[in-house]
Structure formats: structure tokens, C-alpha cells
Design goal:
single chain, mainly alpha, three-stranded antiparallel beta sheet, two-stranded antiparallel sheet, 41% helix, globular
Length: 588
């Protein structure tokens, strides 16, 4: 019973100020060369490091819009007490691509998904973990190593090479110039300057002269090692009021890296080149179009991984294996893939916030089928309609339930704390470290629920647990430690999934809930759950904690979410229309 209480919450502060593994902490980049210009001392295959230009060292805390979130568990959303304060919150000016984005960009531009020279691992395996701040020497060397290996393998593959250079002889001035301009527009997300073209062209005039493949590989390496490729700079200096206006190319980059985790397509690039991304309406029109693409799976996955906070090593969870029959590492991997597929399906198909909690659409494979009580021989998550009374929404799926659990026992505390704090935005508290391994008094409990009630019935635990944390967790006692449905507790007693759940505290709204399906239906229509979701999307998109200047935007999104047919994709598109998406604060 000792593991029963690990991670329990006590009323001592604000839950979730830890740093779980999220979709990336966008940071700043450092280089001694002008962004986008290879150094003047480079030789074929090596980008110079002493080129003229200003050092770019920006150490802002968060990432700019479109870089993706940090996975930080945000404080509770303001419920009924927020005051809209117009303004443009500060964002980091030169964030780097996250590892997820790096892989997506290399795939989209060059067709490379894994590197033979890196043990068939993705290119991002060669670079450091996502972080903020200036690059260290080790991190910079990681980018150089990745650039070298990617360039080598691209030029060695006729298929991938054609994505970079389409003419036969790279040593031809016309061929190389066209390649530099065409690929550079894609890699830098903007047209190259004449000085940049000239700088890249010097690889064709070195002594001794390189072969066609050597020149092509050197130029590609220089592109991939450039700060203008690695980072997503926002340097426009056109004033609008007290803020600075993003250029159309910078706005396009924000859009594509937020919604697709990658570079834009021809339509977005054409709009940027025509300077048609200067107004909120223009940006929203592109966002609406892009969110209808299968590539919107990028934001669906990245944001909801952050929202669901399912990552090993977070302050909430640490389980990837369970010793119960029917569960293995393969089961957990498949369960995580199912959640990704579920979130993608909801967003791309036009689903609503309520659908996240009520949709019975599952993505089952042979590794998870037995847990769901269905049969499947599929090796990858396959769309399957599950029992709507037992499997509505992502909180009833194996990925969530097995993560928010202990080895052989479910955890009403972990599951309930997540719903109360993260989903419903009701403040609870940080776990008391001295309570982590406490035991319920006495013995003879026939249900996990009874043991949990006994454990948390006295002060100081009861103030939060009895009314806020435990009840939604008790409703989810219908699922065991690996997420299988159960009517009988492993300790022998009958499952009681009825509880008085508080959905709102200002004013207090408490309802009797008897089943997971009832709980999910109520969450899907609860205003503060909708507001918390909108606020967390804004925090994810900007890479920072939302503040009072974000309240106006959150207010608008929350109002729109009250309409039952309002889709998640529409919410994301509406966010991009906000002034804070196309403007930045000077000096950040």
C-alpha cells in the first residue's frame, strides 16, 4: 500500500510548477556569423566561424509564437476575476527550432527521417535537448555534427539530393545560384539577400576546385549550420503603436511552426512574398486553411502532449511499465501513439473541446486491444469505435490511465489532481514531501477508494482531498492501473464510482457523478475547463506563462468555445488573429 499515495496533493501551494518534458523550450541562438551568411574562412564541407556580423545572443525565457510550448504546468486560469489589459506581452526574439521541429523541417525539405551514420536515429538525436538561452559549445557542435551528416547522406542519395539541387552540375554558376536562391528561400523562410547568395557562392571558387557533389554538399552544410536555419528570428523594426510589427515572412514562420511544426507550403510562402500577412484577418485566413491540412497533426500532437502533461519524469507521473498481465513497454508505446492519433483526429476532423472528453473514437493495436476488451491484429494504432459508455475521451484511454497510476494499483489522487487542477483550473496544492510514502491507518481495506479516503481524511490533507482532489479520481476507479475496465477492486470490494465533484469554485458548482461518461460530459461543457484550455493553448503557442495582457485574447476564445459547434481548429485560428500574434514588444 505504500505506493498508493506517491504524488498526493496537500494544500501547501500551487500544483505543477515543475518542468515536465514538453514539446520544447524554444530558446535563443548564438553565432559569430551574420545570420544566413557562411563565414569567410570556410572550406568545402565546413562552414566558417569568423564571418563578419553581429553576435546573436538572446536569452529570453520563452519562445515566440509558433515555436511550441514548454510543457510547463500553468497556474490555474482566472475564473471570473480576470481583467482584460490591452497590450503586447514580451516574447523571445530569436528562439531556436525544437528537436521535433528540426526533424520535421529536415524531412520536409530534404526527405531525411533517419541517419544511417547515426545508427538510424533521427537527425535531432545529434543535437542537444530543447533549452532556452545562448548555445553552449557542446550544443553548437551538435548542430554542426547534424548538419554534416545530413548533408553527406542527402548528396549520396539521388532521391533526396534532387530535393536540394535539380540540375546536373553544381559547379555551374547558373545551377548553383538557382539552387542557393530556391533552397535558401525554403530553409531561411524568406528570400536571401544578394550578400548571402554571394557568400554561399564562394564554395564554388575555392582552390583546389571541388567536384559537383563536393560543392553541393558544402553549400548544403553551410545552410544547415546557419543561425538563420537553426533559429526563427523576429527582427522586423516597423513600429505599430508602441510595439514592433512582424514582417510577413516572420508571421508566416510563426504560423507554420505553430501549426505544422515545420516550414510553410507554397501558398503560405507566396502570401509572405507578396506581403499579405500584415493584418490579423490575413493571418487568420492562412491559419484556417492550414488547419485543414493533415500537417496540422503537428500542433494537435505537440499542444495536447503539453495539455495532457503525459511525460515520464514529470512532477505527476513516472510510470512506463506495470507488472500487471497484459501490459508491457510495447503497450505503453502503443498507448502514447494512440493518444497522438486521437488528438490529431479531433483537431483535423473539426472536433470540439467537448469531443476531447466525449469522443469514443479509439486508435487500437494488438498491444492495447486486450486492455480495451476488443480484438486487433494491427501493428499500428487503427481507428476503432469503442464503447461510448466506458471510453469517452482521452481521460479514459490507456495512455492517460496507465501513466496516472502506480505499478499494480490505480491512483485516485494522481488522476483526481490532474482533473481538478489541470482541467478544471481549481487550485489545490503541492504534495507534502513527508506524506509521499505515508500509509493509510489500519488494514483490511477492500477497495483502493476506501484506503485513499482513510489516508486523506485528517488535516491538513482533508481540506483539499476530500472535496477537490479525490472525487474525480474516485469516478475513474472504474479503470485499473493499466486502464482496463473493472467492476471489482483488486482488493476484493465492489467499485463505487459515485462522487460529489466540484466543477467550479466561483461560484461553487458541485454535482453528483456516477460514471466516467457523466464526468466527461460535464467537463466538456464546463466554462472554466474551456477557459483553462484556451489559456493553456496561448501559453503553449507563446512559450510563456499567460499574463494579464493575454486576458483579452483568452476572453474571446472562451466566449467562442461556449458555442457547442465551435471547433478546436477554429479556436487555434482565432488565436492567430490577435494583435499579440503579429506584434512583438521592443527589446524582447
Amino acid at each position: 500500500m505504500g505506493l498508493l499515495v506517491a504524488g498526493s496533493a496537500a494544500c501547501t501551494g500551487t500544483v505543477g510548477n515543475g518542468q515536465p518534458t514538453g514539446t520544447g523550450n524554444p530558446g535563443s541562438s548564438a553565432s559569430t556569423g551574420s545570420p544566413g551568411v557562411a563565414g569567410s574562412t570556410g572550406t568545402p564541407g565546413t562552414a566558417g566561424t569568423t564571418g563578419a556580423g553581429n553576435m546573436v545572443v538572446v536569452t529570453g525565457q520563452g519562445g515566440s509564437t509558433g515555436v511550441g510550448g514548454t510543457g510547463v504546468i500553468q497556474p490555474p486560469a482566472c475564473i471570473g476575476t480576470c481583467v482584460c489589459m490591452p497590450g503586447v506581452p514580451a516574447t523571445t526574439q530569436v528562439p531556436r527550432m525544437t528537436r521535433v521541429q528540426y526533424d520535421a523541417v529536415v524531412k520536409d525539405l530534404l526527405g531525411v527521417t533517419t541517419l544511417t551514420s547515426a545508427g538510424n536515429m533521427p537527425p535531432s538525436s545529434l543535437i542537444s535537448e530543447d533549452s532556452a538561452g545562448a548555445l553552449t559549445d557542446i550544443a553548437w557542435n551538435g548542430y554542426l555534427n547534424a548538419a554534416e551528416k545530413v548533408a553527406t547522406e542527402v548528396i549520396a542519395s539521388s532521391t533526396n539530393k534532387s530535393k536540394f539541387i535539380t540540375c546536373a552540375d553544381a559547379t555551374s554558376a547558373t545551377c548553383l545560384t538557382d539552387t542557393i536562391k530556391t533552397f535558401g528561400r525554403k530553409a531561411f523562410r524568406r528570400p536571401l539577400t544578394d550578400a548571402e547568395v554571394t557568400s554561399f557562392m564562394r564554395f564554388n571558387s575555392l582552390t583546389p576546385k571541388g567536384t559537383s557533389n563536393e560543392v553541393a554538399e558544402s553549400v548544403l552544410f553551410a545552410f544547415l549550420a546557419s543561425p538563420s536555419f537553426i533559429s526563427l528570428p523576429e527582427l522586423g523594426e516597423t513600429k505599430e503603436g508602441t510595439a514592433l510589427k512582424l514582417t510577413s515572412h516572420e508571421a508566416a514562420t510563426r504560423l507554420s511552426f505553430l501549426l505544422w511544426n515545420s516550414v510553410g507550403d507554397d501558398m503560405l510562402n507566396a502570401a509572405a512574398d507578396a506581403n499579405q500577412l500584415t493584418t490579423g484577418a490575413q493571418i487568420k485566413a492562412q491559419a484556417t486553411r492550414m488547419l485543414q491540412s493533415p500537417k496540422a497533426a503537428g500542433v494537435a500532437t505537440s499542444f495536447h502532449r503539453s495539455y495532457a502533461n503525459i511525460a515520464i519524469g514529470t512532477p505527476w507521473t513516472n510510470n512506463i511499465t506495470h507488472s500487471l498481465p497484459g501490459f508491457s513497454t510495447a503497450s505503453y508505446t502503443a498507448a502514447m501513439a494512440e493518444l497522438d492519433a486521437f488528438f490529431q483526429d479531433v483537431v483535423v476532423s473539426g472536433g470540439t473541446f467537448a469531443d476531447l472528453y466525449t469522443s469514443p473514437v479509439g486508435f487500437v493495436s494488438s498491444a492495447t486491444a486486450s486492455i480495451y476488451g476488443v480484438t486487433s491484429t494491427a501493428t499500428t494504432p487503427t481507428k476503432t469505435m469503442l464503447d461510448a459508455t466506458k471510453r469517452p475521451g482521452f481521460l479514459t484511454r490507456v495512455g492517460f490511465l496507465s501513466t496516472y497510476a502506480h505499478d499494480t494499483a490505480s491512483s485516485p489522487i494522481l488522476r483526481g489532481a490532474f482533473i481538478t487542477q489541470r482541467v478544471l483550473a481549481i487550485p489545490v496544492g503541492d504534495p507534502d514531501p513527508t506524506f509521499r510514502n505515508a500509509q493509510p491507518p489500519g488494514t483490511g481495506y477492500t477497495t483502493n477508494r476506501a484506503a485513499t479516503e482513510a489516508l486523506t481524511m485528517n488535516a491538513p490533507c482533508n481540506a483539499c482531498h476530500t472535496t477537490k482532489v479525490n472525487p474525480p479520481g474516485f469516478v475513474l476507479e472504474r479503470y485499473n492501473a493499466i486502464g482496463a475496465w473493472q467492476d471489482t477492486d483488486p482488493l476484493g470490494g465492489a467499485i463505487n464510482s459515485t462522487a460529489e465533484v466540484i466543477f467550479t469554485t466561483q461560484p461553487e458548482v458541485k454535482k453528483t457523478v456516477t460514471s466516467p461518461a457523466e464526468l466527461m460530459a460535464e467537463i466538456g461543457k464546463t466554462p472554466n475547463a474551456q477557459r483553462a484550455y484556451a489559456q493553456q493553448f496561448l501559453s503553449f503557442a507563446t512559450g510563456r506563462v499567460a499574463n494579464s495582457m493575454d486576458t483579452c485574447t483568452v476572453d474571446k476564445l472562451t466566449t467562442n468555445m461556449a458555442t457547442p459547434t465551435y471547433s478546436i481548429a477554429a479556436m487555434m485560428a482565432d488565436y492567430t488573429e490577435a494583435d499579440s500574434f503579429r506584434l512583438r514588444t521592443q527589446g524582447n
